[in-house]
Amino acid sequence: MGIRQLIAMIGLTGMFAGSAFGQDATAMALASSMGTNSLAIVTWEMDEGAGPQRFSGLGVCVEVDDEGGGTLMAMGFSAASAPEDYLDITVILPGVEGEKLEGTLQGIDPLTSLAFIRVEQAHDCRPVQFARESGLSVGDEVVSVGLLPGELGHIAYVGKAYVSTSIRTPEKVFIVAGGELTQVGSLVLDSEGNVVGLVNQQMWSPWQMVIQRQAVNVPVRGQQWTDSFLPVEEFAEVLDRIPDSPDQVEPVPWIGALSAETVPKNLWAADGLTSPGVKLHDVIPGYPADKAGLVNGDIIVAINGEPVEQLATPDLTASQAMRNLTELGVGAQVTISYIRDHEEHTATVAMTAWPTRPGQAPRYIDISIGVRVREKVELDQYIDKSATAKIPGLIVLSVATNSPADQGGLRPGDLLTSIAGQPVRTVEVYKELMAEQRASTVTNSIDVLVRRGDQDKAISIRLD
User: Cα–Cα distances in Å, from 299 out to 270, 320, 352, 462?
Assistant: First the structure.
């Protein structure tokens, strides 16, 4: 090869390398700009019985109104909790002296747990335009942008990595290598600057620590630096139905069974299966599966003609089957193919909305005696396998150490059935009866009756 040819090849190599570097730098610069103008920290308070606790997550601007107010999409919330449990929502804009704004919960999508936070006050918020499909393959470069911790001023920072594989959890998740992504909630961009995903809750990774000269496996997962993300196709539809209030959140469809498990492959023949199947447990009377004639132990093998998909583990297979049902919507008429006694049958199930779940039941924290209680919901009688399942009352969720309730003998898990001889079923009645007892000048204690296991127990709680 001549010297001129060699020089020409070196020049071409440098040109392509420079082009790739330029594209890479452009994507990272764009990501950094989005972090400064489209991200914010969202904080909120919850009290689960141990006192108020502060939580935080990363918010992404998705809407702006004519007055300059905006809507943020954030992770870290749960649709299993009641909207009113999220208190004192604050939005902190990035910057050394980040401005703090008041936020309001517009709703939490029940399938993805993505929350939407409304900020009425005008502020600099540039809405992010998400792609509809990620279109990524193994080897593709991605960058992400997050915000550094508060002590560093919530300044935008950028990560870069390459797609190494995709897995189902059962959601599709991309794993990256050759670099790291930024924190949970971060935007993920492809090399052309399209927003193609969000960094979601990270999976545990096995690491080893040497303890007393022995290698010990320790499960860890990243906080500031992460290694997987959720592609946009897993949540794009959520952006088409942003609620204005929690009342507008679409309900979660439900087949009417509390749980399901995948039949292990070595038991297929014994159960009459030739392909993956998901066995139903705790079919609730009066709900869709029961109305369609399904019973405990029936094994679903197909949904609307599509066979149950086998994923990497039995738990993922069952989760995917239930996820397929929830995606069909409330009111959908679903054809279920199932095995019972080695014979295949079909049933048409009309999907309904999940009833109120225990985590959404009204609760009350009585600071004066140190107890947290909640009302019973319909599902409690099926979830609870103890003797208290069908007995009415309030469930004691927690008791503060050395509080009057603790010193009186009240315990978590007790069922509070009466106060001063009066039955108690709701938190409002609880508050009324306790107020009456506190106002009484006859005694400085309150007598309550609880059900513990299969026995009633009288407890006297002294008032300070």
Answer: 12, 15, 20, 54
Quote the mean pLDDT of the chain.
89
Q: What percent of the chain has pLDDT over 70?
A: 93
Q: Which two tokens stand for residue 72?
A: 């943020």
Residues pairing with 159 in the sheet? 144
Q: How far apart are CA 431 and CA 443, in angstroms?
A: 18
Smallest Cα–Cα separation from 48: which of 91, 82, 79?
82
Spell out the alpha helix ranges (H) of 272-426.
Answer: 288-291, 314-326, 380-383, 404-408
So what's the architecture of 141-247 in CATH? Beta Barrel (2.40)
Topology (CATH level 3) of domain 358-462: Pdz3 Domain (2.30.42)
| Contact call for residues 49 and 8 (beta carbons, < 8 A) | no
Q: Is the CB of residue 74 less than 8 Å from the CB of residue 65?
A: no
Q: How many CA atoms lie within 13 A of 75 on its CB side?
A: 18
Q: For the whole prediction, is pTM greater than 0.85?
A: no
Tell whether the torsion through CA atoms of 161, 162, 167 and 172 is positive or negative.
positive
Pairing of strands 104-108, 100-102: unpaired
37-119 and 141-247 share one CATH topology? yes
Separation of alpha carbons 185 and 75, rounded Å:
6
Q: CA geometry: angle at 240 spanning 154 and 70, to 5°? A: 40
For residue 22, what pLDDT band results from cuts at 50, 70 and 90?
low
37-119 sits in which CATH class?
mainly beta
Token digits of residue 207: 């690491």
Give domain limits for the chain: 37-119, 141-247, 253-353, 358-462
CA distance 113 to 280: 25
CATH code, residues 253-353 = 2.30.42.10
Other Cβ atoms within 10 Å of 31 Cβ, number: 26
- CA angle in degrees (0–180, nearest 5) for 109-111-113: 50
Give the pair of three-digit tokens for residue 181: 């992504």
**Looking at residue 96, what is its pLDDT?**
67
Closest to 109 measured CA to CA, from 257, 235, 211: 235
